[in-house]
Amino acid sequence: MKKPKDRIYAGYIKRILDLLISIPAFIILLPLMIVLLITGFAAMKGNPLFIQPRPGKKDKNGQEKTIVSFDNKKQRVVQNDIFADPNDNLLALSGNGKFLAVSFEDGGLMVYDTTDKDNSAEIYDQSDFNHFEGGFYDKFFAFSSTKDGSSVFAVINMDKMEQEGGFELDSRIGVQPDETGIYISHK
Fold first, then answer.
1. Contacts 24+ apart (CB under 8 A), 165-172
2. 8 A C-beta contact, residue 169 and residue 186
3. Is 111 helix (H, G, I), strand (E, B) or coil?
């Protein structure tokens, strides 16, 4: 436990010492910092300060890349989400950024084409499914939908917009697509 005099030092005296040292140091070093900044401009023929561009927001021409409208649909949320596991929702972006898969609280599942709105695929408009898993591998979108302990699994070829395969089980199907393949499990 801290003694009362330790708290006084930590609260007031330390703050005063910090200011007494930092303000004179800043004033003394300011001319040197200005010289270094001007030297950096000259040596680098531009801004010597590193500024990280924000990826994803805008393209090289300053235009917004894509805005996807969910048309007043929303994902399932829980009342107290502090320790909630959001794994009932599906939100996956393909490796090239062309497709976005999203599940909704009404059991809907959509795959949006971020480059062409007319090429989006509605898997379910609404359904009784309450758990979704999946993602993208190469040109394929693989997903599972679960309700009451039974699941549906499917693989969709996004180039052709056709289902390549799928099956149903009376148990939960786990799906984990990544850059190496599509992995499934069942319980």
1. 172/131, 172/144, 172/146
2. yes
3. strand
Measure the CA–CA gap between 15 and 55, rounded to whole angstroms.
39
Distance CA 70, CA 67 (A): 10
Please, which residues have CB within 8 angstroms of residue 155's CB and are 6 or more apart in sequence? 140, 141, 142, 163, 164, 165, 166, 182
Beta pairing, strands 162-169 & 131-137: unpaired
pLDDT-derived band at 111, boundaries 50, 70, 90: very high
Give me 174's structure tokens. Answer: 């786990």
Residues 6+ apart with CB under 8 A from 44: none
pLDDT per position as a tens digit, 46-100: 777 777 666 666 667 767 667 777 777 877 766 655 555 566 889 899 998 899 9
Distance CA 168, CA 151 (A): 6
pLDDT by residue (tens digit) across 157-168? Answer: 999 999 999 999
Q: Which of 124, 162, 125, 126 is nearest to 141 (CA)?
A: 162
Q: Is residue 123 within 8 Å of 161, Cβ to Cβ?
A: no
